[in-house]
Design goal:
23 helices; five-stranded antiparallel beta sheet; GMP Synthetase, Chain A, domain 3; alpha/beta; five-stranded parallel beta sheet; 670 residues; Rossmann fold; 29 strands
Length: 670
């Protein structure tokens, strides 16, 4: 292994902080909760908006709620080593369930709330979950649908009783009922909870999080308390997160990012986590809560910016002029001011005026007025999108992580924020690049194993403790890591030109009109792509241009939309023609898909990543048409509707040619 190493970078641990000293000896989540209830009694820990009103629980109240739930689960028969599935939207009670399960030696297993019944069944079966705690009737119905096929699932607890009145199955219990059972046990044995917690150890399993299944069935990633708590504490120290932070938990609880940001870091720093009323009210609730700490994947940042630009297109001429004039200035001066770099006095004064008229009102509208730190991760974010937020004064930074690392591998430090890197290694993390270009790492967050999958564990973890990320990347002279693509996806065109599909897709998605893209070309004579339009952005554009349409498919097939997307593709080609190694991978042909790629159809993972091989196989006639020179292509596919019903969808699609640009011509033009 070491003989093939090409580059290695690491960062030592940060010095002892107040949080580290405060939590000395607290090596599990329940122990940290007990410490927080003592140190932060009366301080907010959990918030939830219900029926339009924000409810708040303090750390000492959260401890009491968790004590009753842990005792109740034990009274139901939960024993050390049992797995407890948790499914639903972000709810304080579901977060408390995780710690309650850990307190009695059980393992929480969060499940994606939008998973269909079959996907949920796979996790329930693979984990061997005996218990499930579900948010509401919708999730209970999915569990009931699979229960007979998975007899290991014995008991289902529901958090929201609305619609559950006529469910009479004896294995169904309300959250309140379980807590009542716990209160009875605690009255009989007051020391039960503390005694159980004292038996927990840092090396115990804290959580099992399933991967998104980009290339196959999801794998259960086993993380210990030490993995999550140490990694969370290191990241908190790096960016000075304290108990004064506020954040909004709106991403899937089954995703490792939410587990770290909304649970791990909240516990070690002691800050409050708010839960929105529903997925539909996230932006409204974000404005009301005004978080100081925020995480969003690139797709969310892109969607917010798309909404802003659509609103500006509909604004009056004076507002549009002010917005453009001051945003142009913000792009020149904003990032430097945010990083504390020298900026000319006149530019500072103009930026202050812009802040009064444009930047501050916009931040307030978005709910970003109080944000001190924001992260983005998951995939590359467009430089223009990244610079837009930093120009506004929002301290957005990129990080690089994965479930198997308890998130953090690389983090951009303040003052070293760049759109084309993911930063240097995080505290106590070592990263190296093999000759093949693959990125490997070691850290305190390295996962224990893939559950019941020794083969996959051995393929990912080397005997000497390194973890293969599957990503290709390199370190620049600045010590920052740059990710190129998934190592297995980087290929060559027929003439030997480097082909990095994810790089092309990300450049296409920089445009607000393009929601998703899938690039093809390995072994072919040229690169080609599928495009999904963004219905909101393109729909708004169509209305302004007098284009009438009846739905997504009709809009996607409109000749004027093809012209619009062709302009975006050709701009990507112009950008690629400036890059010597990628000039030959410009996109020659593309088509606009008749439907949006959908997780329910297996085309995306539950974390909204494209399952490239699945898409290629599913739409093979379209892929063949792209490379055959055919002007049109026909496809018929099975689709899944929101209520789970199946149907057939067929369409004829046009295939467009995009202009490509030679390297030398563009160099002269520039």
């Amino acid at each position: 292994m070491d003989g093939s190493q090409r580059t290695s970078m690491s960062r030592p641990a940060i010095g002892r902080s107040r949080a580290r000293a405060r939590l000395a000896g607290c090596d599990t989540f329940p122990k940290v909760l007990i410490a927080n209830a003592k140190d932060f009694a009366g301080r907010p820990a959990s918030r939830e908006k219900d029926l339009g009103i924000w409810q708040t629980w303090t750390w000492d109240q959260v401890l009491e709620e968790t004590r009753k739930l842990a005792a109740g689960l034990s009274a139901l028969g939960a024993r050390r080593g049992d797995k407890i599935a948790i499914v639903g939207d972000n709810r304080p009670r579901l977060y408390w369930t995780m710690c309650a399960a850990q307190a009695i030696g059980c393992t929480p297993v969060p499940v994606y709330q939008d998973a269909i019944a079959a996907e949920m069944g796979f996790v329930i079966d693979n984990a061997g979950a005996r218990f499930a705690v579900a948010e509401d009737q919708e999730q209970v119905d999915k569990l009931l649908q699979i229960k007979d096929a998975h007899p290991n699932l014995e008991t289902i607890v529901f958090e929201d009783g609305r619609g559950m009145r006529h469910y009479t199955q004896p294995f169904l219990l309300s959250f309140d009922k379980v807590q009542e059972m716990g209160a009875v046990l605690l009255a009989r044995d007051p020391g039960f909870f503390e005694r159980e917690v004292s038996q927990t150890k840092g090396g115990d399993i804290a959580v099992m999080l399933y991967t998104s299944g980009t290339t196959g069935q999801p794998k259960g990633v086993v993380l210990s308390h030490t993995n999550v708590l140490v990694t969370s504490l290191n990241a908190c120290e790096l960016d000075n997160l304290t108990e004064d932070e506020e954040t909004l938990a709106y991403l899937p609880m089954a995703w490792v990012g939410d587990h770290i940001f909304s649970l791990g870091q909240s516990y070690v720093a002691g800050f409050a986590v708010g839960c929105p009323e529903s997925g539909a009210t996230v932006m409204t609730d974000l404005r009301e809560l005004g978080p100081t700490y925020f995480f969003a994947p690139p797709r969310i940042w892109e969607n917010i910016l798309t909404t802003v630009m659509i609103r500006m297109e509909d604004a009056g001429a004076i507002k549009r002029w002010l917005f453009k004039r001051f945003m142009d200035h913000a792009k020149r001066a904003g990032p430097a001011l945010l990083d504390g770099k020298p900026v000319a006095l006149l530019d500072r004064l103009l930026y202050r005026l812009g802040d009064l008229l444009v930047y501050a009102p916009l931040r307030n509208t978005l709910g970003f007025s109080r944000i001190r730190l924001a992260y983005t991760a998951g995939e590359a974010i467009g430089p223009d999108i990244f610079d837009f937020y930093r120009s506004l004064g929002v301290n957005v930074k990129q990080l690089y992580g994965m479930t198997e690392a308890s998130v953090f591998i690389c983090i951009q430090p303040d003052g070293e924020v760049r759109p084309d890197t993911v930063g240097p290694p995080g505290p106590e993390v070592e990263v190296k690049i093999e000759e093949s270009g693959e990125v490997l790492f070691k850290s305190p967050g390295v996962f224990q194993a893939y559950y019941k999958n020794d083969k996959a564990t051995a393929e990912t973890k080397t005997p000497d403790g390194w973890v293969r990320t599957g990503d290709a990347g390199f370190f620049g002279a600045d010590g920052h890591l740059r990710i190129v693509d998934r190592a297995k996806d980087v290929g060559r065109l027929a003439d030997g030109t480097l082909f990095a599909p994810k790089y092309l897709e990300n450049k296409l998605k920089f445009f607000p009109y393009i929601k998703e893209a899938v690039a093809f070309g390995a072994g072919k004579d040229f690169a080609a792509a599928f495009i999904n339009i963004d219905l909101a952005a393109v729909g708004n554009w169509a209305e302004r241009n007098g284009i009438v349409y009846g739905g997504y498919a009709e809009l996607a097939a409109h000749p004027e939309v093809y012209k619009l997307i062709k302009g975006c593709v050709e701009q990507v080609n112009r950008d690629l023609s400036r890059e010597t190694t990628l000039v030959g991978s410009q996109i020659r042909r593309f088509l606009v898909l008749h439907k949006e790629l959908d997780a329910d159809d297996g085309e995306l993972t539950r974390t909204r990543k494209v399952r490239r091989n699945f898409v290629q196989d599913r739409y093979l006639p379209l892929v063949d048409a792209l490379f055959s020179g055919a002007p049109r292509a026909h496809i018929e596919t099975e689709v899944t509707f929101e209520d789970g019903r199946k149907g057939r969808l067929q369409a004829d699609m046009g295939i467009a040619e995009a202009e490509r640009y030679p390297l030398d011509v563009l160099k002269k033009a520039s």
